[in-house]
Design a protein that fits this description.
Layout (H helix, E strand, L loop, with lengths): L17 E2 L2 E9 L3 E7 L5 E7 L1 H4 L2 H17 L7 E5 L6 E5 L6 H8 L4 H20 L2 E2 L8 E4 L2 E4 L6 E2 L20 H5 L6 H17 L9 H10 L12 H7 L10 H7 L81 H4 L33 E4 L10 E5 L2 E6 L2 E6 L6 E6 L9 E5 L9 E5 L5 E5 L5 E4 L7 E5 L2 E5 L5 E5 L5 E4 L9 E6 L4 E7 L5 E8 L5 E8 L2 E6 L5 E8 L2 E8 L6 E18 L2 E6 L3 E6 L6 E7 L9 E3 L3 E5 L5 E5 L4 E5 L19 E3 L2 E5 L4 E6 L7
Antiparallel strand pairs: 1-2, 2-3, 3-4, 4-6, 5-6, 7-10, 8-9, 11-41, 12-13, 13-14, 14-15, 16-17, 17-18, 18-19, 20-21, 21-22, 22-23, 24-25, 25-26, 26-27, 28-29, 29-30, 30-31, 31-32, 32-33, 33-34, 35-36, 36-37, 37-38, 39-40, 40-41
């Protein structure tokens, strides 16, 4: 049989022989969506490999769900979850490999041996609370915690099956009319407000799981899922049989109002000091699965009956198979694709810095350097560290990450309720601030105006996404000028000018210092142009306009101060300008559909030559940073691809799976480093030479909660400092020279 990466269709009845580079040895369980196999790596490492049925591999929606499962599992791999060793969601038959250790599920244990004793129940409560704490710290909501998704091992409970989990910073939401989860263990808000499900829903599920473990049944029981749903939303839970010492805590977990439920940390605190022995639950010994070719090893089956070694039923796919492990995974390193072959694989062990599930407050979020795996500071970097700072601009109400701009030695930021503020970039002290416009629903977008001096530091501008545009003196924040228009306008700073477009073909520019209109007319050759990136070297602003049928795009460049179109031409496909290479070539993204890119297109401004460079696979792009000849492409799942545009047909230099969802546009800074922000407030740093994650900050959430936001402001790099913003309303600065210390 060919490996999964091979071409051609596998015969489903026979099954594949390999998943990627891993030989599949024995079937551990099968369900409606796929099969879980026992496998071995080249070094002999035992793995549990989940392989999707061929009939689902052709379903784009299922592939998206499976890719989300892989991303979520990578983010939370740690002491209480199953570490992902390798995965390929884009294979002919998508698969994911985790380390393998035996252990019954909580559902099997209760079914075969009855409810847990009080001491075992208390240990289970503490272990699951700690697991949820680390899962939520990683920015993930499980959404389907239930007894069949809890493994009992000699090192404590492990939470598995992230098939319907979502990062709290993800822009993927439950579709209208679809109920996702297991009703007896779902929170009321999952039935009533599925788009607002947060970490508190996992705490409600924990309460239901504990009742099941203590009594053999859930707090809301019925043969009808509709009745169960009604009971979850309206009725009080049945806690009969729950030990008296735990019943009040379980009742709090099952509160109808998410705000009244305890956090995992509060649950852990309520259990201290422990009143039970320290030893962990040790499941009954079970028989090994039969292995081909006379192979053997101390590996348990997927189920047992009373510890007598009788084989249990085959586990279902949706309940996941209890074949997970928790041994640490080596730090992730990006590796070149073998033989230059471009393959859309997520095939490298998850980085220790992205595991996000260790002991202590965000301790596991420290990059590998803290474990001694990262190199020392680069030659020439100063030893004196920048201590950093954090300033909260907004403290109350619904928050969103502030938006900032840096220039003329000053930092300017805007937040909800704070129209504009100037901060000292060295200390973070607020030098002055202005109230936001009354109708402003999101932070204004600040930018520094150049080209002259008016007061100390010139001017700073700020505007809502569709105007009006206002300018203020940098010294005191006094009003300088503002624009007015009958139509809402979007703006694009371009050196000493600001270009405004109304989306209906109207284009004009104003002088950044005086606010006086420089010109107002249509751009020759364009009907409804869309401004792109500005090139400070040539003083040209890119512009594009895609045809209604998406078959071609007119691309040009014009002078911002005069509106003169310098060059333009028609190109095939739907394209959008992204940036420029060091030799001046304009880089455009080729849109397959929506935000999916299938290629990069390079337009030489001098000779007019065009090169189309296919990407290794279609990428849901969130941002592209061009540095030299390399385009760093960041997708919606936090997968970063370094693509060399200088190669005749393009070439992937490295790929890095960061596991971050809903990210900002990446920014390249000095020292061959790239930075981007995540919606949970983290700032990540990547070494662009080695393709390695070298640092990340802790999440910054307001009261541990995160509202969805469609855009995440990118960080700012200024000399030896990086400025980031977070959804708790804060602005912070860290030392760009030492990401390992973040």
């Amino acid at each position: 049989m060919p490996p999964l990466r091979g071409t051609g269709a596998d015969r489903e009845a026979e099954g594949p022989e390999y998943a990627g580079d891993y030989r599949l040895q024995a079937c551990l369980g099968a369900g409606g969506m796929g099969v879980v196999h026992l496998a071995a790596s080249a070094s002999g490492l035992r793995l549990a490999v989940k392989v999707v049925h061929a009939r689902y591999a052709e379903d784009p929606e299922f592939r998206a769900r499976f890719r989300q499962e892989v991303a979520a599992a990578r983010r939370v791999s740690g002491a209480f979850t199953a570490p992902v060793v390798d995965a390929d969601p884009d294979a002919v038959r998508p698969w994911m490999a985790t380390l393998y250790v035996p252990g019954p599920t909580l559902a099997d244990q209760v079914k075969r041996n009855g409810p847990l004793a009080p001491a075992e129940l208390r240990r289970l409560t503490a272990g699951l609370a700690e697991a949820l704490r680390d899962i939520h710290r990683a920015g993930v909501v499980h959404r389907d915690l239930k007894p069949s998704n809890v493994l009992l091992t000699d090192t404590g409970p492990k939470v598995i099956d992230f098939g319907i989990s979502r990062p709290v910073d993800s822009d993927l939401h439950t579709e209208t009319g679809k109920l996702i989860g297991s009703p007896p263990f779902m929170a009321p808000e999952q039935f009533q407000r599925p788009r607002e499900v947060g970490p508190a829903a996992d705490v409600f599920a924990l309460g239901s799981v504990l009742v099941h473990a203590a009594t053999g049944h859930g707090p809301f029981d019925s043969d009808s899922p509709y009745i169960v749903a009604y009971q979850v939303v309206h009725d009080e839970p049945d806690l009969t049989g729950v030990p008296a010492e735990l019943a009040p805590l379980v009742a709090r977990c099952l509160a109808k109002d998410p705000a009244e439920r305890p956090s995992p940390a509060q649950i852990m605190a309520a259990l201290l000091p422990p009143s039970y022995a320290a030893e962990a639950f040790i499941p009954a010994q079970r028989r090994r699965p039969s292995l081909p070719d006379g192979e053997d090893g101390a590996y348990g089956e997927t189920g047992s009956r009373g510890g007598r070694g009788e084989p249990g039923p085959s586990p279902a796919w949706d309940a996941d198979t209890p074949v997970r492990a928790t041994a640490p995974v080596p730090p992730r390193r990006a590796r070149p694709l073998r033989g230059g072959r471009l393959r859309p694989r997520l095939t490298i062990a998850v980085a220790a810095a992205v595991a996000l599930a260790g002991a202590g407050i965000y301790a596991a979020m420290s990059p590998p350097a803290r474990g001694g795996t990262e190199p020392p500071a680069r030659p020439g970097e100063v030893a004196t560290a920048f201590a950093g700072w954090e300033t909260t601009l907004q403290k109350h109400g619904p928050t969103a990450a502030p938006a900032c701009a840096h220039g003329e030695g000053a930092l300017y930021c805007a937040a909800r309720g704070v129209g504009l503020a100037r901060l000292d970039p060295v200390t973070g002290k607020v030098l002055w601030s202005l109230d936001a416009p009354v109708k402003a629903e999101s932070p204004l977008a600040p930018f520094v105006l150049t080209g002259g001096a008016r007061g100390t530091g010139g001017l700073v501008g700020a505007a809502a996404p569709t105007g009006p545009l206002r300018a203020y003196t940098a010294e005191r924040g006094a009003p300088a000028w503002s624009t007015s228009s009958k139509l809402p306008e979007s703006f694009r700073p371009a050196g000493s000018a600001v270009v405004l477009t109304d989306g209906q073909g109207g284009v004009r520019a104003v002088d950044g210092q005086s606010g006086k209109e420089l010109w107002r007319h249509g751009l020759s050759g364009f009907d409804v142009p869309r401004p792109g990136p500005y090139d400070s070297v040539s003083g040209l602003l890119a512009v594009s306009e895609t045809s209604a049928d998406g078959t071609h795009t007119r691309v040009g460049e014009f002078r911002a101060r005069t509106g003169e179109v310098v060059r333009q031409r028609n190109l095939r496909g739907a394209l959008e300008p992204l940036g420029r290479t060091s030799d001046g070539a304009l880089v455009l993204g080729s849109l397959y559909q929506a935000s999916l890119y299938d290629a990069l297109v390079l337009l030489d401004p001098a000779g007019g030559s065009v090169r189309r460079l296919p990407l290794p696979h279609r990428i849901d792009v969130r941002g592209v940073a061009v540095h030299g000849s390399v385009a760093h492409v960041l997708d919606a799942d936090g997968h970063l691809t370094a693509f060399d545009t200088a190669a005749p047909k393009g070439r992937v230099l490295w790929e890095l799976e960061t596991g971050a969802g809903n990210v900002s546009t990446p920014v390249v800074g000095p020292g061959d480093r790239l930075y981007f922000s995540v919606q949970d407030g983290r700032l990540l740093a990547v070494d662009t030479v080695r393709g390695a994650l070298v640092g990340q900050t802790r999440p910054r959430l307001l009261n541990g909660r995160l509202d969805y936001a469609p855009l995440v402001p990118p960080p700012l790099v200024a000399g030896d400092r990086v400025f980031g913003t977070a959804p708790d309303g804060s602005v912070f600065a860290v030392d760009a020279r030492d990401p390992a210390s973040w």
